[in-house]
Specification:
By secondary structure, the chain is mainly alpha-helical. The protein has helices at residues 2-5, 19-28, 40-44, 64-80, 125-135, 146-157, 177-184, 198-204, 206-225, 230-250, 255-258, 261-267, 271-280, 287-303, 307-320, 325-338, 341-355, 360-391; strands at residues 12-13, 49-52, 59-62, 84-87, 102-104, 108-111, 122-123. Helix 5 crosses helix 6 (146-157).
């Protein structure tokens, strides 16, 4: 993470602060490190403190790290004006005091002056995507040409210099969707020649997770603009797709993107791509994850007004795997939800023909459908009789 942050962040980066080491180095060479308001004597005397609320009498123990971090933030941010960052890998409990005021910008949260909605952190989707696609090295994850990609980012953002100095922390032009797409194409493929233990894999999962958050944020902006600004809608929808696709490049079939990406493709009128993606799940993810993603995505197609797409995918899946019970159950459930009695009965009969057994859940579902159909028909008859009497 230190390597990732160095070219991007000029400021106080609490992700790389090991406090005992930091305090020791601060005493030895204060010019090269962050500022604290304490003298060396005061630093040597640092101890945990017990605080008693004068109004309530409640007592609370404050660890050295709590008030040292507070002092670092106060001295650097409030007095000197340097930005303050927390790594996304820091446990929430360790930054609870500042959590509502954080803004995600990639692998780091920036400390903001104001709290986010509902006292929760916010996501700067544009900054996340520029950092992940243009600034960060990612060499331990992907086999793309890092140097070429970073140079292209600098050129697009107006940060390139004649002497080749890394100036990625300097504010530049906001990249367009086309710019971001060109950077994404340079990411390369996931590396398979690097061993990662369980802890490393867990930490590296923060990269696709950050992109998925940026994708969701862009999607929400697209929906907000849908009825008032078609240009902004298409732009934000495009960025959302890019973010989710980049997360899937870094970590194919990652769980953060699986249940949202197919629905996003349909909203962007990329129906065939959505169907192909759903088909690619089999054998690449666990069966539980595959079935959960399929069920939620197909149900989302129906609710989103494209039920024919869902039924077309299921028909193809059943044709290719006629003995897989799950496909029939999903197909039946969707017909049942739409109140399509004949089609639901057809699915039940088809499964009975394949398996030799009648599915008890489908049988109960058919009874419910039949009762519902009879009640609706009775209601129509009663309404017609009522209208006829009133007409007389």
């Amino acid at each position: 993470l230190v390597e990732e942050f160095r070219p991007d962040v000029t400021g106080v980066n609490l992700s790389v602060v090991n406090l005992p080491w930091y305090i020791k180095q601060l005493k030895n060479d204060p010019e090269k490190l962050l500022l604290m308001s304490n003298s060396n004597t005061e630093i040597d005397a640092l101890r945990h403190r017990m605080y008693e609320d004068p109004k309530t009498g409640e007592r609370q123990l404050f660890m050295i790290k709590d008030y040292v971090v507070h002092d670092i933030i106060t001295t650097n941010h409030k007095q000197v004006g340097l930005p303050v960052f927390f790594a996304v890998t820091i446990p929430q409990d360790n930054m609870a005091r500042y959590f509502p005021n954080l803004q995600m910008e990639g692998m780091a949260y920036r400390l903001m002056e104001t709290a986010g909605p509902d006292n929760m952190p916010v996501t700067d989707a544009q900054k996340v995507m520029e950092n992940l696609l243009g600034v960060y090295r990612l060499g331990a994850l992907l086999d793309g040409d890092t140097g070429a990609r970073q140079r292209r980012y600098q050129m697009l953002a107006g940060l390139a210099s004649d002497d080749g100095e890394q100036v990625l922390g300097r504010p530049g032009n906001a990249l367009t969707t086309s710019d971001l797409d060109s950077l994404q194409r340079m990411l390369g493929k996931p590396r398979t020649d690097v061993f990662r233990n369980k802890n490393a894999s867990h930490l590296l999962g923060n990269y696709p997770a950050a992109l998925s958050r940026a994708g969701y944020e862009s999607y929400m902006k697209a929906n907000a603009a849908a009825e008032i600004d078609s240009v902004a809608y298409r732009d934000q929808l495009g960025k959302s797709l890019l973010a989710f696709e980049a997360s899937l490049i870094i970590d194919p079939f990652n769980s953060q993107a699986l249940e949202f990406y197919p629905l996003l493709l349909v909203q962007a009128y990329q129906d065939q791509k959505a169907m192909d993606f759903l088909s690619s799940l089999r054998g690449n993810v666990s069966q539980d994850m595959e079935e959960r993603t399929l069920y939620n995505s197909l149900r989302g197609f129906v609710r989103g007004g494209v039920p024919d797409l869902a039924f077309a995918w299921l028909a193809q899946a059943i044709d290719e795997n006629p003995d897989r019970h799950f496909y029939y159950k999903v197909q039946f459930a969707m017909y049942q939800g739409l109140g399509r009695v004949a089609e639901a009965r057809g699915v039940m009969d088809a499964w009975e023909k394949v398996s030799g057994d009648r599915d008890p859940e489908m049988s109960r579902g058919m009874e419910e459908l039949q009762r519902g159909a009879e009640q609706r028909e009775q209601g129509r008859v009663e309404e017609a009789v009522k209208n006829g009497l009133e007409g007389k």
